[in-house]
Design a protein that fits this description.
The protein is α/β, with parallel strands linked by helices and about 280 residues long. It is built from 10 helices and 12 strands. Helix 1 crosses helix 4.
Length: about 280
């Protein structure tokens, strides 16, 4: 997925490098000259690493002669050495901050996803993301969700019809669904419901997914049972206010999906550093 969007990723990297290097790197240039050095990429805590190839590519953009060794693939890693960079020291230091910014952000999202997925404690429920991503970074955020064991929801508005509760009322929902089927026959339709009355108004319609948004935990089991009984083909997503404290409680009732914006809009930073060997 990640390199299917190569042009977009390269544009992001170019913008980031320009932020740091549009006036050069005089600090390194006056101290170091033609020195070949080795630097270690160190992970300071157990985490899911995401963005290794992006990290390498940033250094290659600065200096094609840099070489890499002992690099791991994107995956869960225990703290310690996860790769080495060898080459001109000015080149390494010039690319260091930009490269670390990318791999730290991506690893943060992957680790946030991994941790929340594990807390669900139900392999039959998929953890999915939202569009609450850094503007311009969506492809990298959503790739990192996959690395962390989650699944992607919509990449953009055009990939699926999502009918929010403020798009309809119980009197016009049938016509909205009919229009959707007519104009976009190949797109799945998901409808958000906030209460039992809304759910009953769409339960027998020709849709694919129902989202239980901000549903009280004490009524989730009964509501999921109602959906399974009346429309067994209808997939169920739970969304709204999902966090580390309550996700297991929701997951125990086995909806098909639980979505969380927190894995991309506020992941905990992962501590990585580049240090001279």
């Amino acid at each position: 997925m990640i390199f299917d969007k190569f042009q977009l990723i390269e544009s992001l990297i170019d913008i980031a490098l320009d932020e740091d290097l549009k006036d050069g790197d005089p600090s390194s240039e006056i101290i170091l000259k033609n020195i070949k050095s080795e630097y270690n990429l160190l992970l300071k805590e157990d985490a899911v690493i995401s963005g290794v190839e992006v990290f390498k590519y940033i250094f290659k953009k600065i200096d094609r002669n840099l070489s890499f060794s002992n690099f791991i693939e994107d995956s869960f890693q225990e703290k310690g050495l996860i790769g080495k960079i060898i080459g001109d020291e000015v080149s390494i230091l010039s690319a260091e901050r930009t490269a670390l910014n990318f791999i730290q952000r991506m690893s943060s999202v992957a680790t946030s996803t991994f941790n929340l997925k594990n807390l669900m404690n139900n392999p039959n429920v998929e953890l999915i993301d939202t569009r609450k991503t850094i503007p311009g970074w969506r492809v990298l955020d959503k790739y990192s969700v996959l690395v962390g064991g989650g699944k992607n929801h919509r990449m953009n508005l055009g990939e699926q019809i999502m009918i929010k509760d403020n798009h309809y009322d119980e009197n016009n929902i049938k016509n909205i669904i009919k229009n959707g089927k007519k104009k976009f026959p190949n797109l799945k339709i998901e409808i958000e419901v906030d209460n039992l009355s809304q759910l009953k108004s769409i339960i027998n319609e020709d849709i694919d997914i129902v989202m239980l948004d901000n549903w009280p935990i004490d009524s989730v089991e009964e509501t999921i049972g109602f959906v399974r009984k009346n429309n067994p083909k209808l997939l169920i997503e739970i969304s709204g206010g999902i966090n580390q404290q309550n996700i297991a409680s929701y997951a125990q009732f086995s909806p098909d999906f639980i979505s969380s914006g927190s894995i991309t809009h506020s992941p905990k930073s992962i501590d990585l550093s580049l240090e001279k060997a």
